Amino acid sequence: MLGNEAIAQACLEAGVSVASTYPGTPSSEIGAVLEARKQETGLYFEISTNEKVALEVAAAAAVSGLRSLVFFKHVGLNVASDPFVSLGYNGVKAGMVVLTADDPSLHSSQNEQDSRYYARLALLPIFEPSTPAEAHSMVIQAYELSEKLEVPVVVRTSTRVNHARGVVSVGEVRTAKSKGSFEKNPSRFVLVPANARRERLQQLDRMKATTAMAEESPLNFVIGEGKVGVVASGVAYTYVREHLNGVKVLKLGFSYPLPERMIERFISGLETVIVAEELSPLLEQDIIRLAKAVNPKLKVIGKLSGHLPFAFEYSPDTLRGLKGVVETDLPEKSVIVEEAKLPPRPPVLCAGCPHRATFYALRKALGKRKAVFSTDIGCYTLGVNPPMSMADYLLCMGSSVGAASGFSQSIDDKVVAFIGDSTLFHSGIPGIVNAVFNDHRFLLVVLDNGTTAMTGHQPTPGTGRSQEIACKCIDIEAVVRGCGVEDVHTVDPYDIKATTAVFSRVLESDSLSVIISRHVCPLAKRKKGSGKPLAFQVLTEKCTGCRTCIGQFTCPALALDGKKVQILAEACSGCGCCAQVCPKQAIGVIQ
Questions:
Q1: Among 64, 241, 344, 578, whose Cα sits 20 to 30 Å from the Cα of 331?
Q2: Which conformational region is residue 145 in: left (phi greater than 0), alpha (psi within -120 to 50 degrees), or beta?
Q3: Helices 193-216 and 132-149 sit at what angle, rounded to 10 degrees?
């Protein structure tokens, strides 16, 4: 199984009743599996508007006696951190797992962060699987521990666990409880200061009991012999097992609260200990502290010693930094790295992507006018690439609107913000309210492609869920007007001339304006099997080889054939935008 498939399977075996998420790579496939298999158990699964709401949904289920799961990528935990930390105080009644998928090396993220800090901040237990099989078994054990302690348990995965494949021994799927009951207990569940102070002391007592459990947990174990030891957690453990020889290894699967007595026993007879952990040197700092009492001459090797890198994910090549410290079976040079020189393949907007047409129309409308572009998280972030070059500032989900407010107050240039439909519902609406409330003036472009495209085409509040779940689709224009924006327009970016005209008019105004650029993602449309696209061809007798279509529109379905342009039929989505861009009218529909 894929690691994410194993996690979903474990939830079905554990009898999870409620699962919630906001999609984010590398965790997204968990939701795809739960959505497809929820009928097996009666599981309720929802895609929430953002991670904070998702955690609150799962927490309410867990205090009502239903096992719950909330999952997201590492930056999603930032969004959910407010209720997450409070939940460490008053806890839950049924098992609850908070799965956070870290993304070392930033494969699909705007930053690289270590979620262990958050679990330590909230004083919640952490499990760190190394393989898909461990992810499966640890999720099941996490529910059992959660119910013993009456607090959520954090399962911290990483890209190489979520997206690895391995053999998993599965169990029987359980029927989920459809309804629970909430027993009122305001002194516990209402965190006014007087109650929170009492819960804080109980939380600290609970941590002592949890530490004792970590000391005895079979998820923490020692293998091998030698005077050189390794303490490893997460996927780093797999690289240690595969490539380091003659070492004694302490695997920490239940890594927090720290099993200090176990670590002290492990390091007491060693000459050297290597600490293998991804991202921050948390375990390394703990071991340096513990060694002062039990083995002050111990040599601690890791990130702080300079042998292992702080940045990016680990791989077998990372262990080359340990040569001279311990025996490895790695070759002097990696044959794969040396010989496999792949051509560069920068990410681009797909053929027929409506965002490209939106950017093109706006660029035409702007002309030589200077503008600052505040962008957001989504496919449209690729507008940073030339020739569009429409991304100047990006922080996080929903930040484009708030940042545009700041720019509009701080500079004289025209300010344009971009946000996607899913991201708008996630965290863009407060920024619009703020802009209205404080009279900030800029142009906000809502790129509505009718899906959450970047993470796998999940639905949005603007599209509704599915036929089996009756719900209203939320109209973006009504939301924006409801926030107080008066100058609102909706365009179809595939009509480049009309879209350019609307942009031109709005750019002349000195008000807060919103343009909703709406056209469904062609990949999402293709998945639904709706309609056969038109087929376009280059009329070679009219093509002068001016390359306007390639140089200014940059659709990947366009390519040079000698001095003239051709359309790659296997890549073309039939949007027809290139025909509108061509100044010679040299592109037409195949009759």
A1: 344
A2: alpha
A3: 130
Question: What is the C-alpha separation between 60 and 66, in angstroms, rounded?
Answer: 9
Q: Alpha-carbon distance 179 to 164, whole Å?
A: 35
Contact present, 214 and 145 (Cβ < 8 Å):
no
Please provide the distance, in angstroms rounded to a whole number, between the alpha carbons at the two ends of the chain: 47
Per DSSP, what are the bridge partners of residue 373? 416
Show Cβ contacts of residue 539 under 8 Å, excluding neighbours closer than 6 positions. Answer: 586, 587, 588
Which CATH number is 220-339's, of 3.40.50.920, 3.40.50.300, 3.90.230.10, 3.40.190.10? Answer: 3.40.50.920
**Distance from C-alpha of 349 to C-alpha of 580, rounded to nearest angstrom:** 18
Q: What is the CATH number of domain 3-216?
A: 3.40.50.970
Token pair of 80 as six digits: 């959910």
Contact 229, 267 (CB under 8 A): yes
Residue that has been written with the tokens 């020692």 in this structure: 222
Same fold, 3-216 and 536-589: no
Beta-bridge partner residues of 517: 447, 491
**Cα–Cα distance between 248 and 228 in angstroms, integer?**
6
According to CATH, the topology of domain 354-527 is Rossmann fold (3.40.50)
Classify burial at 541, counting beta carbons within 10 Å of its beta carbon; exposed 0-12, middle 13-18, buried 19 or more. Answer: exposed
Rounded to whole angstroms, what are the CA distances from 201 to 59, 109, 123, 548? 21, 37, 12, 68
Give the separation between CA 267 and CA 229, rounded to whole angstroms. 7
Domain ranges for the chain: 3-216, 220-339, 354-527, 536-589
Domain 536-589 has CATH 1.10.8.60: no
| DSSP count for the chain of H helices, then E strands | 22, 21
